[in-house]
């Protein structure tokens, strides 16, 4: 049983391909899955009675195998089924269960509920009587565990095809799936852990890993650590937040055009001028936080786009940007839109959140950080990273400005790709929120960043 950080994420189709390519017989894979499920339930269930809910497909087959293994281990276990098995593998697994099988509608609750009704590949919701039974049994259980996915969840989009009471633990078979990480399904999965069943997971999507940051070299100086220019606008507090966050990582932060004095003294301030971005030492430019929607703002964005610096484009600048302009630039760009800004930038892009972020990155040639509780980071190469941790307190004014500044600082650093910079920034941003705790404001994030950086891997 493994945490999911950094692991490859498979869609339903990719999971089927991985199983077929594993060289392992499907029955053997089911036996492995069922045995692994049973071992987890045995270890965390405290010896309490287990009720296993089995569906008609292979997810139900996993449940029958797990029930048999639990019984052999001396754990009291009952099985309730939705219907007779409908696949050869599920029928084989049902034949291996020596106990009775109750109809779900007549089953009594148990302290541990194992949901093996439906897993990967579900295309329609559960019938209402089944939903009602699942809710009733879950409410009376002390611990609910879902096999692969909670029943009633769309694997690839995270949509809820049926109402679900929520699991405390979801045991992903072989690899995490998109629904483990995407709203609205992700919170209903509880803690997600992966069970190794002997397949090789291959995909361009993965769970966001722990940020990897290197300490400055022994011979480092402020410019070798990266110089960031933050362009201010009509709301100077937003750019001040971005600059303050950048200063926690970069060696030199230049705030251009800000009228605010509420800044660390370490941040250098200059007035805006047409040649403000000519300094060749600038490693990345952050533009957009508090920029404004006027012609002055547009002129500043045009100057940034005309430069040869790497760019982080956020906030108001996203409302002024034509994404097609990025394709001709040699230096990398990172876009950090929330859903509303994304819809403005890419009005014709449809599909799941993963599909939309990936398409937008391919069309624009920029790395796209599609923000939200289920943030997606997509590179023009098709690589996608999905954030696994959710801190609701991040839904506060200015938190995106902090993320933009942090992203710019990481992008300005030595030997860093746009995807790596964006990924580490999102991880550190979330970790800083976790450290800051409930009732945080965006200013608290900048103060928590040193502790977050200390938690990052080398």
Descriptive notes:
This protein has two domains: 12-206, Rossmann fold (3-Layer(aba) Sandwich); 227-455, Ribokinase (UDP-N-acetylmuramoyl-L-alanine:D-glutamate ligase, 3-Layer(aba) Sandwich). It starts with 11 loop residues before the first helix and ends with a helix. The protein is built from 13 helices and 17 strands. The protein has helices at residues 12-21, 26-44, 58-72, 88-95, 128-140, 236-246, 295-306, 315-320, 339-345, 353-364, 399-412, 418-436, 442-455; strands spanning 50-54, 77-81, 101-103, 112-116, 143-147, 169-173, 191-195, 205-207, 227-231, 252-256, 268-270, 284-287, 310-313, 333-335, 367-370, 376-378, 384-386. Helix 6 links the parallel strand 9 (227-231) and strand 10. The strands form two sheets. Strands 8-17-16-15-14-13-12-9-10-11 form a ten-stranded mixed sheet, sandwiched between helices. The protein has a seven-stranded parallel sheet with strand order 3-2-1-4-5-6-7, with helices on one face. It is of the alpha/beta class. Helix 3 (58-72) packs parallel to helix 4 (88-95). Helix content is 35%, strand content 15%. Pfam families: Carb_kinase, YjeF_N. Keywords: ATP-binding, Isomerase, Kinase, Lyase, Metal-binding, Multifunctional enzyme, NAD, NADP, Nucleotide-binding, Potassium, Transferase. Its cofactor is K(+); Mg(2+). (6S)-NADPHX binds at residues 58-62, 148, 238, 290, 338, 401.
């Amino acid at each position: 049983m493994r945490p999911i950080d950094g692991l490859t994420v498979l869609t339903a189709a990719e999971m089927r391909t991985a199983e077929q390519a594993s060289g392992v017989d499907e029955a053997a894979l089911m036996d492995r899955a069922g045995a692994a499920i049973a071992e987890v339930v045995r270890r965390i269930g405290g010896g309490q009675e287990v009720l296993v809910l089995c569906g008609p497909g292979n997810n139900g087959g996993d449940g029958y195998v797990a029930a048999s293994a639990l019984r052999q281990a001396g754990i009291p276990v009952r099985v309730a089924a939705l219907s007779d098995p409908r696949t050869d593998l599920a029928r084989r697994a049902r034949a291996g269960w020596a106990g009775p099988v109750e109809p779900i509608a007549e089953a009594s609750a148990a302290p541990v509920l194992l949901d093996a009704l439906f897993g990967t590949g579900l295309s329609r919701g559960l019938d209402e009587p089944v939903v009602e039974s699942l809710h009733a049994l879950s409410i009376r259980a002390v611990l609910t565990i879902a096999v692969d996915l909670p029943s009633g969840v769309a694997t690839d989009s995270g949509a809820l095809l049926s109402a679900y009471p929520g699991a405390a633990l979801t045991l992903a078979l072989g690899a995490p799936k998109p629904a483990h990480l995407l709203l609205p399904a992700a919170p209903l999965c509880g803690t997600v852990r992966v069970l190794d069943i002997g397949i090789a997971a291959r995909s361009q999507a993965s769970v966001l890993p722990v940020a990897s940051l290197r300490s400055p070299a022994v011979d480092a100086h402020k410019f070798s650590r990266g110089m960031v220019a933050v362009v201010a606008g009509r709301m100077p507090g937003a750019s001040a937040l971005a600059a303050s966050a950048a200063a926690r990582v970069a060696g030199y932060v230049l705030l251009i055009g800000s009228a605010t004095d509420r800044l660390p003294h370490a941040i250098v301030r200059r007035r805006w001028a047409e040649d403000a971005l000519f300094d060749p030492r600038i490693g990345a430019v952050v533009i957009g936080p508090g920029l404004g929607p006027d012609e002055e703002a547009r002129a500043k964005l045009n100057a940034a786009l005309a430069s040869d610096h790497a760019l982080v484009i956020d906030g108001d600048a996203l409302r002024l940007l034509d994404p097609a302009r990025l394709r001709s630039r040699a230096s990398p760009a990172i876009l950090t839109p929330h859903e509303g800004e994304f819809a403005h930038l890419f009005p014709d892009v449809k599909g799941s959140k993963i599909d939309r972020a990936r398409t937008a990155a391919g069309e624009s040639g920029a790395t796209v950080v599609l923000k939200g509780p289920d943030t997606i980071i997509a590179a023009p190469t098709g690589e996608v990273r999905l954030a696994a941790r959710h801190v609701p307190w991040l839904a506060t004014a200015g938190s995106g400005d902090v993320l933009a500044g942090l992203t710019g600082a990481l992008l300005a650093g030595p030997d860093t790709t746009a995807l790596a910079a964006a990924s580490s920034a999102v991880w550190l941003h979330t970790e800083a929120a976790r450290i800051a705790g409930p009732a945080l404001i965006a200013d608290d994030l900048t103060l928590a960043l040193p502790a977050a950086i200390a938690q990052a891997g080398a």
